[in-house]
Write a structure and sequence with these properties.
Strand order of the largest sheet: 1-2
Structural class: mainly alpha
Length: 323
């Protein structure tokens, strides 16, 4: 069986993506002899970068969407006149549309949540308003329609105030607001001659009120767990988003450096000597996921690889040097 003759019509300095070339495996002569970044410096730099990402993650997701839109707009502006980048432009437009949709959705949800919160607060205030007709009916019901205003032994005022405290705890009303409302209700009963002696001596206790709030939350622990899980997912998503934005944009637009790398005097370079662009920087960041997927083995190989390339360096064909 005859073997196919190799195609020798290629340029050693150009990658055709049609035939095998040495392009992807050649290290530019300008990099030969350059000092490689030590594992210690790279580890210290990544700690600084992770701290920066952690601080950025404290910002609202709205800011993340806005900055993504700005980055997409900037990238589109830089490649607007370049030919052969149809897919790049399409991908950026798609990313911009997605970020814009997410931003609009977040703004809408925040506005709705704010309105719901304001309405909820208004409902709580109205339901606890001491002069509200509903409370007057409750007082009349406790006292009895045809009976005397309030028998001391029936403890109707005490029952009413106890029920009001429970309502306030279930609604999560702040202690100071709840205490003021309690005093107003007590005065309202006193003015209407419906405050029995036991209710007169009833005081609003801060520890007991906080305990009632805790117990109220425990009765809806299922919803609390779901809310907690949703919050964790949202925080993780925001953190990953900021990390992708931080490592990709800074590496591409800050001459191969992030804040941590700049502090420790190291930088990312392509093995062909050309500056790393945004697409390659995004691909390099994706290599971090591969490193995690290999159980950190992709990162640890920095100790035995000849050019101290980690898995993200292998994927993006980069080196980390100390110029």
């Amino acid at each position: 069986m005859s073997q196919q003759a190799p195609n020798t019509e290629f340029s050693a300095d150009k990658q055709t993506k049609k035939v095998v070339t040495p392009f992807a495996f050649n290290v530019d002569e300008s990099l030969l002899g350059q000092r490689l970044a030590t594992p210690r410096r790279r580890f210290a730099a990544i700690l600084i970068d992770l701290l920066c990402v952690g601080l950025l993650s404290l910002l609202s997701s709205i800011w993340l969407s806005i900055i993504i839109l700005l980055v997409v707009a900037n990238a589109l502006w830089h490649i607007r006149n370049e030919s052969g980048k149809t897919w790049a432009k399409f991908s950026l437009l798609l990313a911009g549309l997605l970020a814009g949709f997410i931003l609009a959705f977040q703004l809408f949800v925040n506005d709705s949540s704010s309105e719901d919160a304001q309405q909820s607060d208004a409902d709580v205030v109205q339901s606890l308003e001491f002069s509200n007709d509903e409370y007057s009916l409750k007082i009349d019901g406790l006292a009895g329609a045809d009976g005397p205003v309030c028998f001391p032994e029936t403890k109707c005022g005490e029952q009413f105030l106890g029920a009001a405290i429970g309502d306030m705890a279930n609604n999560g009303l702040a202690y100071d607001d709840a205490k003021n409302t309690f005093q107003d209700l007590k005065q309202f009963l006193r003015d209407n001659n419906k405050l029995d002696p036991r209710a007169e001596s009833l005081e609003f206790s801060e520890p007991i009120y906080h305990q009632l709030i805790v117990e109220s939350g425990e009765t809806s622990s299922g919803v609390g767990v779901l809310d907690w899980a949703a919050g964790i997912v949202e925080d993780l998503g925001r953190s990953f988003g900021w990390a992708a934005l931080y490592f990709s944009t800074l590496t591409a637009w800050w001459n191969g450096q992030t804040l941590g790398k700049r502090i420790f005097g190291i930088k990312v370079v392509r093995i062909d000597g050309k500056p790393i662009d945004l697409w390659e920087s995004v691909g390099r960041y994706g290599g971090y996921s591969a490193g995690l997927a290999t159980g950190l083995l992709g990162f640890i190989q920095i100790y035995w690889d000849g050019n101290r390339q980690t898995i993200q360096d292998k994927i993006s064909e980069t080196l980390v040097i100390r110029p």
